[in-house]
Amino acid sequence: MEVRGSTVPPTEAIARNTLLARVRAQLAQIPLLGWLFGALLATVIEQVVGDPLAQALGLEGIPGLFGLRIMLTPLFDILSLVVSSLLHRDIPGLLSGLGTILPELALIPSAVAYVLLVYVLPILVVARLSAPLANWLAKQLLDRFPLWVSLILHLGLLYATLHLWGDISEYRVLIMRFIFISIILTLSLNLVNGYMGEFSCSHPGFMALGAYAASVLTVLFFVNDDVFGAPLLPPALGPFMFPLALIAGGLVAAVGALAVAIPSFRTRGDYLAIISLAFMFIVKSLIENLEIIGGPRGFMNQPKWADLPTLFVWTAICVWIIYNFTRSTIGKAPCAVRDDEIAAGAMTINTRHTKMVTFLFGAFWAGVAGGLFAHVMGYINPGTFGVLKLSEILAMVYLGGLNSVVGSIAGAVGLQVLMEVLRPLELWKWIVIPILLIVLMIRRPTGLIAFTEVNIKELLQPRQTLRRSSVQAPGEER
Amino acid sequence: MGKLKVAVFILVGITLVIALIFLLSGMSVASFFQNLLNALQWGSFYALIALGYSMVYGVLLLFNFAHGDIFMVGAYIGLGVLTALMAVVAWLGIPSLPNWLLLALTILLAMLLTSFVGMLVERIGYRPLRGAPRASAAITGLMIGIILETGNLALLGAQRQKFPVLIETRPYQLGPVTVTNVKIMIVFLSLLLMLGLHQFVRRTKWGMAMRAMAYDFVVVPLMGVPINTIAALTFGLGSALAAAAGIFFGIAYPILEPYMGILIGWKAFVAAILGGRGSILGAALAGFLLGFIEIFVAAIFPSTWRDVIAYTIILLILTFRPHGFFGEPYTARLRL
Fold this sequence. Notes:
- The complex is a heterodimer.
- By secondary structure, chain A is an all-alpha fold.
- Chain A contains 20 helices and two strands.
- Chain B starts with a helix and ends in a 16-residue tail after the last helix.
- At the A-B interface, α11, α12, α17 and α19 of A face α5, α10 and α12 of B.
């Protein structure tokens, strides 16, 4: 659609001049900066009028996750009620049950109205109105300053939006924290399973190594603990040294990855899958046997330093580094190795070295994610880092799409939000999500946004304003 | 024959080393044989499940991550069939159907039904993904496994099911070693099933087609071998063996729960790869070896160290023999 330009036949151009096409043409003028302005203002509006508006609409409070749970819960309830009463041939029970659910159903329009009034409308209006200003600003930023100034401004706006959005409830902050950790994990596994085309199962193991290493460091140095005694350094220094502890955790995970990489990359084939699986069992079992770090009971007392800004910064750094890695020469080598190892070797790529570097790099980030995870929870337990975690990370990678940084982010956010939204299904959640994933795998075996990448430079560009009479499709004016 | 020699050498070597450590750590010869019997029983579960993984991996080059849960489903189907059979027998008023006949019928019926489950898994999760990246098929397998676990939990509830005792455990004293009839039966039947599979793959036309497909995926279909049928057959056979393992497991440890297949399944997967790609003999031997290592490590060291030591040994073996006991070195091969 994007590069058709003048080849569009006139009839098609007329057909496109519908309401939808006009809306899209209007929206195409808005640069990323404009959208961020809109989102920021929407969160400000929610801060100011959210509560009274929710009261006026008859909601209990500000909807936690865009009202999705309010919209879906009654539907799930009705479904389960119908099924169970049909199974038990209980028609009066069905009627009385429906009587209690129907009032809940009345909340759905309220939730929709809330989302429209607080999010959709302000974002659209503000983004469109500020489009000229935002376009000018984006152009100035790119013309006068290096790219990173513009990038940091965008990230700052994004963070401000997320911070204000999370200010409403602790629930939102918690979801965002897990989403950030999932993004790092998904990206790091995508390096191995996507870019390198191997099948690694050891990510929970690397995460555990990073989590325990970082926790031991922070607890040893900055916390008065029963096992490790008084802090070795003044606790006030802690938050500043926290990045060092995380990096140390990542390095420990990378050293652990050596134990997998050395035997598995000696030959080709599927031995990484099996060796990494064995490694995951070894790590979990080893931690369970080390009494000094709590054994099977887990390890606690970590200071909860991984708050929202810390996580945001780490995620941004991780995305930036991995994005650049995949575009660099050493990052393109694993793709070549994946597509044809012999040809890559003939092109003077040291295949074994490439695989090792990529694998260790991925393990490092998994370790960092583990360290962050430990300092979000304030408690870790070897049982967390098992087969279930593995299924979750793999599902995020393959949902989002192989070989794509954007895809990984989409997969991590998508699966986490899906799991939150489907929570009212309770047990059935774990039937619905797998079915969705199977259908997705059959339709798109490499995931939603596979093998495509957004160019950051292009993303930050201003959009040219369209003439009012234009009938061109959006996206042509790049 | 060289490969066989090396594999047997490794197996015997590891066995001897462990036996030596065992005896040096002050255990008696009697308890060695006692543990050996336990290891044979435990290893036969691994071996039967590993065969399913190994066949699918050999023929289709895919990991069937739902296989551990098919083992679980097999155990539950066995329980269901047994309950139904007992009800039918009571309803018909047959005074005394011997228990062994009941058990044999249960095993056969459950194997048949579970093989249909396996074929269904292949039809839903694997056939639409032929030609897709292999990892995608691994994901569908993983997801089907989760559906099987959760479906079981949703249908039958969280309480554990008890497998009825059909055969009274009768201990025999063989010198200082205590042998029970149940253990002997499980080991004997498992070996019988493995031998049956071996004969099937070696002697029948279907088995020949499976071996041909494991050898080449492009030319063999051109010669009139129906790929889909053979793939379904492979899944079905593996699932039938897993069902047998599930019932034996239910007889030996009569508590069934929805998540029982996860750990044992992943471990059997390790054993399957250890045996070498697509090698039936290798998978069986590696299954027994894994059981052997686990039981003896638990007997010598504190049992919490079992997984660490068992998997470290496996990691070492794979470091020096990356293709497993009987595996061919990897060659780039076209895949359908």
